[in-house]
Design a protein that fits this description.
Two copies of one chain form a homodimer. Chain A is of the alpha/beta class and about 550 residues long. Chain A is built from 16 helices and 25 strands. Chain A has a domain of about 100 residues: ANL, C-terminal domain (GMP Synthetase, Chain A, domain 3), CATH 3.30.300. Chain A has a nine-stranded mixed β-sheet with strand order 2-1-11-10-12-13-14-15-16, sandwiched between helices. A seven-stranded mixed β-sheet of chain A has the order 7-6-5-3-4-8-9, with helices on both faces. In chain A, strands 17-18-19-20 form a four-stranded antiparallel β-sheet. The model of chain A has no long low-confidence stretch (mean pLDDT about 95).
Chain lengths: ~550, ~550
């Protein structure tokens, strides 16, 4: 027997229409590529999203076809989010930090039909457009007047020209909520990039989950600054959450330096900002020397990689800002866990609270987690047992676009590739990436733990710990280090630095000093390349 | 093209399993009928919910069959919420405040197969059980020892006896999320009661919506006291929201007097309490003379009927507690709107904020609203135009159980029967019930406005305003008044009290003093009965 409730699909178009109706005058402020601030409202953004939908209908881009963007965070990108997905096409956000040949490879693999780009990326588009074989229409996100006449790109039009003649009314189609809505490729460190294909249902459910008080806690009283790019897992879903809650939106464009971000936060009364640790480092480095303060900011969501405890403390103690440590993946829309205290933990002394807050946090309802041993057996949530982290839920992928990489699930669960512990209260802590764990004589050594200790040494700028073949122990840890300019430390002094900080058998067997550690497109260390480079390294203990 | 996201239905069983796993040790505290406090956890409650599911399997109660409850708010009722719905049966919460023949009528109409009741209601069950023709199994929510041997009720068993032999493990079935989950009859003032049949999908989506920061803002840092009964629209969905968020739950049982509620709030560190205005009046009346304070309570959700502005101020100014004014209906699961300020309104002076906070509030995403004129034409959101309030969304009914009353929808919208204004910011304010509006010469007079003014007169205990036939104006308002014990006021003085408070043509034409105004099972004034009583009343103006 079915319930007798209205059958209304969860569609992305309903988010923007809700915002237009219930939060018509809430602001969307964007720092443009030109440097100026642009101000609009949800009412206006919805009207322009409808123009986008009408414009796509005119181009005869069929339902389900991909419309790509190569753009910073801004109001036009926001309009495309809703106009493209809402009208039944699939929004494909390309990552402009990738190498040109990777952009081409991904655009061709996605079979993008339209590509909309910020003027910053005109040189890139000029270089690659002929190789993007499926793209029929090129849209530059600017006024007609800002578009040079001599680009040579066939079918190029400015965004404003493109949508201007279109009606601001549009009957959003109603369809299966499981239909594809957006596509984002992972920056896989092995093999070709693979696409995560989100649905309308997953996007709306994720927005509910992300807005909850135990997640990002977003409301119509917030002014949100998504520093995390809209080309990276839909800016953690923030554009959708903002429309759902009617929060003010502040887009930073391309200016992600500390000074620009600080000015935007203060100028627009930002209450919540979200991004990766490096952005916040730049912000704090800008603020500290000048003795600057926040007037409205009360929390930052930090994810993408682990947030150093020192940064959590600095935000809290010096600026009164709560750091919400979060963890997720492209394959998870991306939200998996957020670290917020539970009721009994609120009475703990600050130091014990900090021991909780450095963890990646608790799952929000909609995400199930487990940790398993190498045989797939579930491990206890004791805060000690460390195993492969598996997840499942309605906003987690069941496969990659076009079936690339085969079936990624194991018994219905998605293996995250992370190694983690979970404590009895459900707080998860990443201890390593599965492939980076060093397996020494049947015991696991966390490369992250070893790196964090090295990073605390005053002479060390960057550190990576990798496993190197060892005749007796299978693998033993090698520490690869970049020193700070002008700093010096010996191999022996650095290894002695581990005394009392880890068990003796976890101390690296050797140190290699290098000029640079290779980084990927999203700033992560490419340990695979390091392992290749040091595969014949002879450990002194071997 | 469909997205590639995991296909996981939104089921009520996943809420309790999430709580058991991620919030195993969060507490559920219940004041029992016996008067003592009972303490358990989500881990234990989930185990017992699984025992309920196993026990129902043994009774051979088919999927979709109704299992009724007649019970106060408590841990056993909570276990039934999840054990019954989670295993695919339909939880039917009966309202014990109804007359015995109404209980019988509803139980027979619902075709309840099992009926679980608190011992408070044993006399009622003794009186009616033979007339409940479909019920095969009677379960008393108590220990075996607490059950008298001589009840005469065939097939009666105590809850603890019933579930004790059952396994605490259970494989929750996976099924269509649109399946029926629970059933609640409206206390219709006209015709027979009609059943709202909620689905698993609607229940989970409603829980997301209700937990949002712009709704009740619930998290694992809350200790929730649902004073609103679990037999009334699932206690506004709070048992589900609590499981979703891992909040501590505090159940008041049958003790809803000011003293008991206050002691529970203080003793259990309640941060959020939800109920109808009369309960809070009792609470404040208990606290004021003794100069009592709240130590943790920071907000109350008040719904069911409009909250008097004086109560909102008292909570805020004297106790530092925010009143969240809410509006909904049985047909809406029930949440429609909650009154929380928007970003720009936070800067308003207190008096202007109060002008917003007395409204019923803004829709949460998942609820669409419109107001229409008598021809169905949509009216503007100008805060002035008053019209019939229509709603739609995935947790709003599309029909009543067994099709009673025909198709309630009008063009896909559910007419709430309320008359309301909506301001440009989306804040809705109920001005009347459609059938209570007084239509005077083509103009509408809000009976609620007239009553509120009378209620502010020191001599008036209760006031109802109804329309009475008038030869010239079709209808004119008659004020029906119950005076406070020992108080006196003349007809003329009471009518003069309206001077300057409403337009002259809105002032009632007459006053009738009565000893009592008839109230329904949920404490609402039964104006239909008053209209019948005064249908031949001759107005002095006629």
């Amino acid at each position: 027997m079915l319930g007798l409730m209205q059958d209304q699909p969860l569609l992305i178009s309903s988010l923007i229409e809700f915002a237009a109706r219930h939060h018509a005058n809430a602001e969307i402020v964007s720092r443009r590529v030109e440097g100026d601030l642009h101000r609009t409202t949800y009412r206006e953004a919805a009207a322009r999203a409808r123009q986008v939908a009408n414009a796509l209908d005119r181009l005869d881009v069929p339902f389900g076809d991909r419309v790509a963007t190569l753009a910073w965070n801004g109001y036009r990108h926001f309009e495309l989010y809703f106009g493209v997905s809402g009208s039944g096409r699939v929004l494909h956000t390309l990552n402009p930090r990738l190498a040109p040949d990777q952009v081409v490879w991904i655009a061709n693999h996605a079979e993008d039909r339209v590509l909309c780009f910020d003027m910053t990326f005109l040189p890139l588009i000029k270089a690659v457009w002929k190789n993007c074989t499926t793209v029929r229409h090129w849209v530059a996100l600017c006024d007609a007047g800002a578009l040079p006449a001599d680009t040579g790109i066939e079918g190029l039009v400015s965004y404003e020209e493109w949508i201007a003649p279109q009606s601001t009314t549009y009957d959003w189609p109603q369809f299966d909520e499981k239909s594809a809505a957006s596509l984002c490729y992972t920056s896989g460190t092995t093999g070709n990039p693979k696409g995560a294909l989100y649905s309308h249902r997953s996007t709306v459910l994720h927005a509910y989950g992300a807005a909850l008080p135990d997640s990002m806690g977003l409301s119509a009283r917030d002014s949100i600054l998504p520093v995390v790019p809209m080309f990276h897992v839909n800016a953690w879903g923030l554009p959708y959450v903002a429309a759902m809650t009617g929060a003010k939106l502040v887009f930073p464009g391309a200016a992600l330096d500390g000074k620009s971000v600080y000015e935007l936060i203060e100028g627009e009364g930002v209450t919540m900002a979200a991004g990766v640790p490096t952005v916040w480092l730049g912000l704090l480095n800008h603020m500290a020397p000048a003795g600057l303060r926040f007037s409205k900011l009360n929390r930052t969501v930090i994810g993408g990689s682990a947030c150093p405890p020192a940064m959590i403390s600095a935000f809290k103690d010096q600026y009164g800002v709560t750091v919400l440590h979060a963890w997720g993946m492209t394959e998870m829309s991306p939200l998996g866990t957020v670290c917020t205290l539970k009721l009994p933990q609120q009475a703990l002394p600050p130091q014990q609270q900090m021991a909780v807050l450095v963890k990646q946090g608790r799952a929000v309802y909609g995400v199930e987690m487990k940790i398993v041993d190498p045989d797939g057996g579930e491990l206890p949530w004791d805060g000690q047992s460390s195993g492969d982290l598996y997840v499942k839920g309605p906003w987690i992928i069941c496969g990659y676009f076009k079936g690339e990489g085969g079936d990624p699930l194991v018994g219905g669960w998605f293996p995250t590739g992370d190694v983690a512990t979970i404590d009895p209260d459900g707080f998860m802590q990443i201890t390593d990436r599965s492939k980076d764990v060093i397996k020494s004589g049947g015991e696991w050594i966390s490369s992250i733990d070893i790196e964090n200790i090295a990073m605390a040494h005053p002479a060390v700028a960057m550190a990576a710990c990798i496993g190197v073949r060892h005749p007796k122990w299978d693998e033993r840890p090698l520490l690869v280090v970049v020193l700070k300019p002008g700093a010096q430390v010996t191999r022996e002094a650095l290894l002695a630095f581990y005394d009392g900080k880890v068990a003796k058998w976890q101390v690296p067997d050797d140190v290699a000093f290098v000029d640079a550690i290779p980084l990927g497109a999203t700033g992560k260390m490419q340990k695979m390349k390091l392992r290749e480079q040091f595969k014949d390294h002879r450990l002194p203990t071997a």
